[in-house]
């Protein structure tokens, strides 16, 4: 069986992304790190198969994606839809926020993440 999560072949990509996080992702990471939201552990730049998600909770199989300007260029929305469909087919739930949401109202972003964590814990067996 092929390993699906954090494959060695994606290690360099993950490290590069972690070392070059956009400012918006740094803001979200400051809120997620050290289990600050509902004691939920998140990892940053986590790979699932050939895709790297911004933040991932293995406990809940929840990925959080921060969509910057590059996500609105030609062809990228279609790529994102295909990527999301693949990740969801592997049991990963995706929660998306735009840079604008993060910059303008980080508290609402954190509240939404908290709400989703609580909701998933209610239906996800321990």
UniProtKB/TrEMBL annotation:
It comes from the Bacteria. It holds the Pfam family DUF559. Residues 10-117 form the DUF559 domain. Signal peptide: none annotated. This is DUF559 domain-containing protein. The lineage of its organism: Bacteria, Bacillati, Cyanobacteriota, Cyanophyceae, Nostocales.
């Amino acid at each position: 069986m092929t390993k699906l999560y954090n494959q060695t072949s994606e290690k360099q990509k993950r490290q590069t992304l972690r070392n070059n996080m956009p400012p918006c992702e740094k803001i979200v990471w400051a809120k997620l790190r050290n289990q600050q939201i509902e004691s939920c552990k998140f990892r940053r730049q986590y790979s699932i198969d050939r895709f790297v998600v911004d933040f991932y909770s293995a406990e809940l199989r929840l990925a959080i994606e921060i969509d910057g300007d590059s996500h609105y260029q030609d062809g990228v929305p279609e790529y994102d839809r295909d990527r999301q469909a693949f990740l969801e087919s592997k049991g990963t739930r995706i929660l998306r926020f735009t840079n604008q949401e993060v910059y303008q109202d980080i508290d609402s972003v954190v509240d939404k993440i908290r709400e989703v964590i609580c909701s998933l814990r209610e239906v996800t067996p321990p």
